[in-house]
Design a protein that fits this description.
Layout: E1 5-8, E2 13-16, E3 25-29, H1 40-60, E4 65-69, H2 76-87, H3 94-115, H4 131-143, E5 147-150, E6 153-156, H5 172-178, E7 193-198, E8 213-215, H6 217-229, E9 232-239, H7 243-257, E10 263-270, E11 273-275, E12 278-279, H8 290-295, H9 300-308, E13 316-318, H10 320-336, H11 348-355, H12 360-364, H13 370-377
Parallel strand pairs: 3-4, 3-9, 9-10, 11-13
Antiparallel strand pairs: 1-2, 5-6, 6-7, 7-8, 11-12
The chain binds zinc ion.
Length: 386
Amino acid sequence: MTTIRLRNSKSRKVEEFHPIDPENVQMYVCGPTVYDRAHLGNARPVLVFDVLYRLLRHVYGERHVTYVRNFTDVDDKINAEAQRRKGLGDPRSLEALIAERTEETIAWYHADMDALGALRPDQEPRATAFIGQMIAMIADLIAKGHAYEKEGHVLFRVRSYQNYGALSGRSVDDMIAGARVEVAPFKEDPMDFVLWKPSDEDLPGWDSPWGRGRPGWHIECSAMSYELLGASFDIHGGGIDLQFPHHENEIAQSACAHPEAGFANYWVHNEMLQVEGKKMSKSLGNFFTVRDLLDQGVPGEVIRFVMLGTHYGKPMDWTERKREEAETTLRKWRALVDGAVPAAHPAAELVEALADDLNTAGAIADKFDKKSRAKMIVSGSSLSLT
Ligand SMILES: [Zn+2]
């Protein structure tokens, strides 16, 4: 059996991957907050973890891998958009407007990521369907002394968890010095983060032991991964921008709620995306969505090919030139394999490259002759990169 090697952010080393149960390999990836179209940067983790998912399925068998990616459908940005529509005179209730926004955004996300050739995860839980489990986990954290209620808020007591900061390799004091931590009168310590916050009448809310309110973002992933995968599972993925504070907070919550378990054994983070050497931002005018590119006639497979041309652990630079080159290369490769019978199994060299810490860039680059690369990459097998 192929041994997969992955860079584990926990140890900061490339390690051999050994699942808890090879019959049921489990991966959780933080999904999108559904308030708007996915921008190009949002596509990177989708494609990186799609390749990992496909590789795991190839090695352990399709029915032996469970991939969970959540939808965050309770968030102040979603509320703001619904309130904006209401302000424009929409007569429907805020709940109805929030539900509409969420539904349309999830449908866009599916359509856009399908166009990039990404398989859908086995489960795509929505945060609003797990509020009861979040409340139960928060109550448990309070009972164990890791959280406290004040003024309708529930906060996680960061100093109660000794290993806080281990994933990103920082101490709590360094983090306080460097981070934009919010000082608030209801916090014992500026590092403490919100598990639950009160909702007034204009906001969505659920009844809880601490009054009507809504969950903080971090508790969503801890509660959903526990419910769907258990207290210990194999891989937790996401963009490097989520490592702190989101992933540190997930670890703190889960480790304190289930001290007997290990939570995620392997943490895999993809680096960020830039556009023409600059951070993508609305103010720089280089911000665009996946849909913008598709609408301009850029095929999904070209976007995928450009993205996978850079190793996930390195910053990825999207450039016009790369897009053009990818279109030309793919056109040539398609012509080279035209008429060939689609491969039943992925090429051994391709599996080998991907098992080496998802070396997509190596597989695409010049290790093999042109025709074998063309065959490997556009062959139509379950592991092809297009
Ligand atoms: Zn998460």
